Amino acid sequence: MSSIIRHSSRLGIRTANFVPPRGRNAYATAAPYFNNEPSQPSVMTSIPGPVSRKAIEELDPVFDIRSLNMPCDYEKSVGNYLADMDGNMLLDVLVMHCIELKSVWFFLINTANREFLYWLRYAQIASIPVGYNNPRLAAAMSSKEAVNALVNRPALGNFPPGYWASLLKTGILAVAPKGLNQVFTAMAGSDAIETSYKAAFIYRRRMERGEGADFTPREIESVMKNQAPGSPKLAIMSFRKAFHGRLFGSLSTTRSKPIHKLDIPSFDWPQASFPQLRYPLEDNIEANREEEEKCLAEVESLISSWHCPIAAIVVEPIQSEGGDNHASPTFFRGLREVTQKKGVLLIVDEVQTGVGATGKFWAHEHWDLQTPPDMVTFSKKAQTAGYYFGNPLLRPNLPYRQFNTWMGDPVRAILFRAIIQEISKHDLVKNTAETGDYLYKELEKLASKFPERIQNLRGKDRGTFIAFDTPRRDAFLKKMKTCGVNIGGSGETAVRLRPMLIFQKHHASILLEKLELALKEI
Amino acid sequence: MSSIIRHSSRLGIRTANFVPPRGRNAYATAAPYFNNEPSQPSVMTSIPGPVSRKAIEELDPVFDIRSLNMPCDYEKSVGNYLADMDGNMLLDVLVMHCIELKSVWFFLINTANREFLYWLRYAQIASIPVGYNNPRLAAAMSSKEAVNALVNRPALGNFPPGYWASLLKTGILAVAPKGLNQVFTAMAGSDAIETSYKAAFIYRRRMERGEGADFTPREIESVMKNQAPGSPKLAIMSFRKAFHGRLFGSLSTTRSKPIHKLDIPSFDWPQASFPQLRYPLEDNIEANREEEEKCLAEVESLISSWHCPIAAIVVEPIQSEGGDNHASPTFFRGLREVTQKKGVLLIVDEVQTGVGATGKFWAHEHWDLQTPPDMVTFSKKAQTAGYYFGNPLLRPNLPYRQFNTWMGDPVRAILFRAIIQEISKHDLVKNTAETGDYLYKELEKLASKFPERIQNLRGKDRGTFIAFDTPRRDAFLKKMKTCGVNIGGSGETAVRLRPMLIFQKHHASILLEKLELALKEI
Questions:
Q1: Active site residue: A184, A201, A243, A389, which one?
Q2: pTM of this structure
Q3: Measured between CA atoms, how close is B502 to chain A, in angstroms?
Q4: Per-residue pLDDT tens digits of chain B, which is 522 residues long
């Protein structure tokens, strides 16, 4: 057992016994997953406090600190609670980022408050799945196997460790989406996405060329000059407000905010409109159906009319960075149909939605597809990255076409296996579904109490992947901060929730209490 | 102390006492860094042997194995010796990859032997710096700090651990190239390169726009459609035969082999000729001077004539994947002058050359530049990745322009710090310089003995970064394999050496012995 596990009882915070929060209406008091968590957030200093300020000053000369929220004490953090350097313990549902704006910030141009930018970075940008200092994870990372994988990092494409197949099967592939039994491992979301695009392009040309056909001398000669036909004009289609990463190929499909893209050369690839649904859904059935049909028609028309062939369409099950935009299962089934009809691959980007957050392990399981997506990308809560696929022809016809030195990281694959075991042991996907239902219903009540302040509540039946709009969003966020809960915005008016999978009803109650307080006061 | 360190004495291999290899001429018998290494490679089965074959069969259905060399036993590997699953112990100077060619393999088109492709993957593609199961590294990775960083992986741009500044200063920045005191951390070579390109584009537009100028509404509107002026036509120039990575931006600058690039859309960016020097250098001074001047003139002319502005030039100190192509310090000083004169940034890609392999910590230290490069990228032997820079204006004018979820990995930064300490403690850069000198001199002798079989010997005064051409390269590689040493090729006719930093003279002697044997027999 690692020193980290043992020392958790020595944490200098008020943890000893779990005390359910007072107030708020009753809820089922399920046993807490972390019984050494504090019972409430506690903020004893301004944030950042004096110790944090000193750490920031030290960091500034060598590292860009303008995106910094706060330096953290990860030894003292536990479960849903993130500790800062000054001993403050924050419920890490939603952490807000606050930057003084020295220049215009574009996606806030139309909002009233231009003084501060509130920015959402919860649970390490939704990448911590099963709590800080989770003992099962600490045990896995202290194991001989993990230390060995760190010290002797293999080039997985050439020299995998002997246990690689077994690790894949008991880890990454044990939770593979239905119909997708193969994986290409990567290191983070952006390279998972970009390698899936490469797979799509290679596949497209393979189909066009015909099985077994060799590259032509003209292709071989032109590709070294970055010219067609060797480097063909082909495109990936994405949706307005999508976010798929920040490297050159992925950034060309990211459409959430200008600031991510300005000054960076990009590929001339198309974007289709993503449905803009009206809420509540039950009151806008016909309008939403029409909206989704319009978007699907646009997709189909763009495939036919774009100046070059579309090799794949990439889509998030819920547009996250773009403001928590949802579409119905019908829309996604329609998208699958269009792509199949047109011979275009469908890549479902589950980097943010995957690994349980929506109340299913993969968000696209909510759609009930007849045939699986061609590729599904993952990262964040998986703590490793890559893409799943099922069609063996998506393996390039020759080796070394899709290759790099490390091709992922076995220690992170070991960590994902431990995460999967922890999720399974505690039935955490179910917990997320149930906590989400509770939270959504309570938010519905709040919305009917404050109809001008909670609008477009969304995320029903999508676990804790819940968001709403608030027209005076920035004033609201400010107020929440003074209430001791950090909460964050996305898009232009959205407030979104992204707790970990171990976020339980008693945590939700704390959040709801603070929310109501803030809503009353603004 | 970790179990790995303790169990190294229980390794089931003939290690107990170091026995200097017999034969070959005398050399200074420095104390071995690993006294539990075997004294000789040992191959008891065919490679892959029966256990390995079984592991490969198990892996095939779920993972692309066509680039696979062999599954390894990293528990039994030690120092310079890599163990396979069948108990074979290979001196991991140079491991050869052998694939049956079922299709034409383009860069071998002009060679005699098309039956097999021998491919170089030594020391995990030159990424293992200080030996398998290095005890100092195992201790660092078993530490409380490392386990904590693994379990609670921070989003470094938002929530760095409190020790991040200190870790940077005692690790990554402690070995920063002269004049470059800042770092942007990444996860692997490709994203290190791509983020450095993004920095170059953002910087370029900042200079063009003028300090403090805002983005125009037209830029903001056009960028969301991937169009100029928001997404401008700007280029990165690279050199023929360069290798800089495999994602969309980096691949657009990679020019080593068609197979890396075919079917992948790319940016219309220019390539300049890299000097093709004649050997031996001392007999071709004038011709080489002319060749380098011609290349510099081409660079200058391309900057002026390309259809869009060049934001940066990226160059490897020694072109590695392209066949170990060298240029003189005079050439690189000239390149620095041209870039400064033309207002183009210079990015030195030290992903393969960095961290000691050339007998200096950074290969560009050999050039004696008057002003440092604008950015230097690193990965591989650093076991983490990123780019160094010095000019504070290379930090974008606003946060979140250069950002991603993880922005590197603290546990790998901890590992790099341990690597730096190990290098320093044993003076391993000096060892590499000295072993390299010895190896180079002995190879010179072999070259004069077999002038038709060792040609264009290169890498003098560049540590163990040594290569030569052999016209019957593939037959030679085959022969070496039967001699029990795996050695690899690069480019079309090159054989190149890439040992770890702990490769000592007694290891070099084993290699030289086998080389001579093979040269005699082909």
A1: A243
A2: 0.90
A3: 15
A4: 333 333 332 222 222 333 434 444 444 457 899 989 998 888 888 878 899 999 999 999 988 888 887 899 999 999 998 899 999 888 877 533 222 222 222 222 222 222 222 333 356 677 889 999 999 999 999 999 999 999 999 989 888 999 999 999 999 999 999 999 999 999 999 999 999 999 999 999 999 999 889 999 999 999 999 999 999 999 999 999 999 999 999 999 999 999 999 999 999 999 999 999 999 999 999 999 999 999 999 999 999 999 999 999 999 999 998 889 999 999 999 999 999 999 999 999 999 999 999 999 999 999 999 999 999 999 999 999 999 999 999 998 888 899 888 999 999 999 999 999 999 999 999 999 999 999 999 999 999 999 988 899 999 999 999 998 887 766 776 666 555 555 555 556 677 888 999 999 999 998 888 788 777 876
Total residues belonging to chain A: 522
DSSP single-letter state for residue B347 = E
Substitution target from A88, A175, A251, A263 for chain B, most B beta carbons within 10 A: A263
SS3 at position B425: helix
B189/A191 Cβ within 8 A: no
In whole angstroms, give the CA distance from residue B394 to residue B347: 12
Domain B156-425 in CATH 3.40.640.10? yes
Q: Is the peptide bond before A48 cis (omega within 30 degrees of 0)?
A: yes
CATH number of A166-409: 3.40.640.10
Report, as residue numbers or ranges, the catalytic residues of B. 243, 349, 380, 405
Chain B residues touching residue A240 (CB < 8 angstroms): 224
For residue A187, the chain B residue with the least C-alpha distance is B187
**Contact predicate B518/B476, CB 8 Å:** yes
Chain B (241-300) residues lying within 8 Å, Cβ to Cβ, of chain A? 245-250, 252, 255, 258-269, 271
Q: From B240, which residue of chain A is nearest by alpha-carbon distance?
A: A224
Edge-to-edge strand list for the sheet holding B385-389: B182-186, B385-389, B375-378, B345-349, B310-315, B235-239, B271-272
C-beta of residue B348 within 8 angstroms of C-beta of residue B377:
yes
Q: In A, residues 113-132, which contact B (CB 8 Å cutoff)?
A: 119, 121, 124-125, 127-128, 132
**Considering only CA atoms, which of B311, B320, B229, B241 is closest in space to residue B269?**
B311
Cβ-based contacts of B207 with chain A (< 8 Å)? none
* Token code pair at residue A404: 């790099």
Q: Nearest Cβ partner of A405 from B82, B125, B184?
A: B125
Specify the pairing of strand B385-389 against strand B182-186. Answer: antiparallel
Residue with tokens 């005890």: B135
From A76, A380, A479, A505, active-site residue: A380
Class of domain B3-121+426-521 as given by CATH? alpha beta
DSSP string of A104-123, one letter each residue: --GGGTTSS--SEEEEE--H
**Domains of chain B, residue spans:** 3-121+426-521, 156-425
Top CATH class of A3-131+426-495+514-521 equals alpha beta
